Amino acid sequence: MNTILKTIVFGLLMQISTRAAAQSDHFKTNNPYYSHTVHTVLNVSNTEWKKILKPELYLVAREGNTEMAYTGKYYEFDEKGTYYCAVCGNPLFLSTSKFATTCGWPSFYKAVRNNSVKYKKDTSYNMVRTEVLCGRCGSHLGHIFNDGPKPTGKRFCMNSICLDFIPFGKNK
Question: With contact defined as beta carbons under 8 Å apart, do 23 and 73 qualify?
């Protein structure tokens, strides 16, 4: 299947999957690696992740697909709290660093801490971009661009499906 057709099929599957379902339901499948407090780097094979994660999350987080613009649960979401990696529970972003954008994905100007995320050169689709990966499990989260607001000038353009959200005061 060619890349364009795969992208279209994936996008349709993402739209079909219910947007109203809680993003954090995936770790109710006994994900032994999910933790909001443990920050040690994980070395788990994609074969293992495929057994644990929901297929939609696996495709984006582990195979680097992208959810369709303007369809993600957190694109126009405005509650106050912390965003975590939906694969491993690593804290990634605070809502205080989220900002409105017209790019179609939730955007942040800084990560919670320096090692929350890591970066990788991405040359797919005949472009040169910087991929953002979870600093704990290495899952694909999205990309970073240099067109964000002050104070950093960065725009972390993230896939909603790769994020879990916990409102301030409700962390376990």
Answer: yes
Report the SS3 class of residue 43: coil
Peptide bond into 151 cis (omega under 30): yes
Distance in angstroms (rounded) separating the CA atoms of residues 158 and 134? 11
Supply the mean pLDDT for the chain: 87
Q: How far separated are the first and last CA of the chain, in Å rounded?
A: 43
- CA 65 to CA 162: how far, in whole Å? 11
Q: Which residues are catalytic?
A: 157
> CA nearest 135: which of 37, 26, 39?
39
Could you tell me what percentage of the chain is helix, strand and coil, using 3-state DSSP and rounding each to the nearest 5?
Answer: 25, 25, 50
**Strand-pair category, 163-167 with 155-158:** unpaired
Interval 17-65: pLDDT, tens = 433 333 344 334 579 999 999 999 999 999 999 999 999 999 999 999 9
